[in-house]
């Protein structure tokens, strides 16, 4: 079985059972291959986690590019905000991202990669705000992006962990409203 096929099952395992349930045996069983096949492609659990992070990052970059297709700067900003809030607890990318977030404080390699990916996400959000409010100062734009990303992160966790209290639609409405408020502030 190819590395990409094993990686697909690895990501699906993380989405389903989280990091605590992740093992070579779990991935092998899901993929229907021998444990040695998984170990050939991913010799350590850390290698599995980092490969899954990279795979999810590719998915996220593609979704971000798709959100960039809107011709209007404000539309691109709001599309990006909606993208960062899962529609529901079944969101594979968000479930895997949450598993990484939980692992980041205790695993230095995962923590470094997580920080790098999240910094890139914040820079992208700042670019969206700057495009939509070209007269705003860089520091104000950066603060708006940091605040928005913190809100989006919290909403995403709540959608995944408490979908009855915070359905995706409600979270997206809250995020959209706050994004509009921040944008109005930047344009003032």
Helix segment count? 9
Shape: elongated
- Gyration radius, rounded: 18 Å
Q: Ends: how far apart?
A: 57 Å
Strand content of the residues, in percent? under 5%
CATH architecture of the largest domain: Orthogonal Bundle
Q: Biggest β-sheet, characterized?
A: none
Structural class: mainly alpha
CATH homologous superfamily annotation of the largest domain: Tetracycline Repressor, domain 2
Low-pLDDT regions: none
Question: Can you give the helix content as a percent range?
Answer: over 70%
Round the mean pLDDT to the nearest integer and report it. Answer: 92
- The SSE order reads HHHHHHHHH
Do you know the CATH topology of the largest domain?
Tetracycline Repressor, domain 2
At the first level of CATH, what is the class of the largest domain?
Answer: Mainly Alpha
């Amino acid at each position: 079985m190819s590395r990409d096929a094993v990686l697909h099952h690895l990501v699906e395992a993380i989405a389903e059972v989280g990091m605590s349930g992740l093992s070579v045996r779990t991935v092998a069983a899901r993929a229907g291959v021998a444990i040695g096949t998984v170990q050939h492609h991913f010799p350590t659990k850390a290698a599995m986690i980092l490969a899954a992070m990279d795979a999810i990052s590719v998915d996220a970059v593609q979704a971000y590019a798709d959100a960039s297709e809107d011709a209007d700067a404000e539309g691109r900003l709001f599309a990006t905000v909606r993208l960062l809030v899962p529609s529901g607890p079944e969101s594979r990318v968000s479930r895997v991202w949450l598993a990484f977030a939980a692992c980041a404080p205790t695993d230095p390699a995962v923590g470094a990669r997580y920080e790098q990916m999240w910094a890139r996400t914040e820079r992208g959000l700042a670019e969206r705000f700057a495009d939509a409010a070209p007269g705003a100062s860089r520091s104000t734009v950066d603060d708006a992006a940091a605040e928005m990303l913190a809100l989006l992160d919290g909403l995403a966790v709540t959608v995944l962990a408490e979908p009855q209290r915070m359905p995706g639609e409600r979270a997206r409405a809250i995020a959209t409203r706050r994004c509009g408020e921040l944008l109005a502030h930047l344009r003032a």
